[in-house]
Amino acid sequence: MTTTKTVHVALYDTLSDWEFGFATARLNLPHFQKRPGVFQVRTVAATLDPITTMGGLRILPDTTLDRITPDDSALLLLSGSDTWTTGANREFSAAARRWLDAGVPVAAICGATIGLADEGLLDDRPHTGNAVEELSSVPNYRGQAHFRQERAVRHDKLITAGGASALEFAREILAELDVYEPAVLEAWYGLFSTGNPEWFGKLVAAAS
């Protein structure tokens, strides 16, 4: 019997709605997956009130953060938003600590890395973000020596990326959750990063 695992996508106003789509689409679509139907995506917010994304979309959360624990989750996904720079969303950066302490992956992109920096979660872990200068503006950040100039970094259950690297962010999430065989993941990334249709043939062949 297949056990369904839930990936929780955090919601808050001004959410950067382009940053998680590559990942959530691949988690929901069974095509090419090693174990189709294993993952489901659910949204989680501080309240059940609708949020408005940066693109102007209104989204109703599936649940609230106080109703879930790391045991309920396969991964907590934190996207950017303007609110991270104002010190908001602290409940989600605190949740990220609980998830990591429990050995459950956390994926943070763009402004969400500011929240992790403020929580002290980047002080001793390899990571990336929009820029080390941005993270260094966070008073509690002590992780400059661990910042990597890479599109996305995955280390010990933590995935980080800059806002211009949504595709690489998704690749690392799919790798962490073991959604695809390595050759399938390579071909999928090759197709979407280059647009070369030859990669689609390689994708189909790898999944056969």
TrEMBL record:
Domain of life: Bacteria
Organism of derivation: Saccharothrix violaceirubra
Protein name per Swiss-Prot or TrEMBL: Putative intracellular protease/amidase
Gene3D superfamilies cross-referenced by the UniProt entry: 3.40.50.880
Keywords tagged on the record: Hydrolase, Protease
Sections of the chain in a coiled coil: none
Record's GO cellular component terms: cytoplasm
Start and end residues of each DJ-1/PfpI domain: 5-175
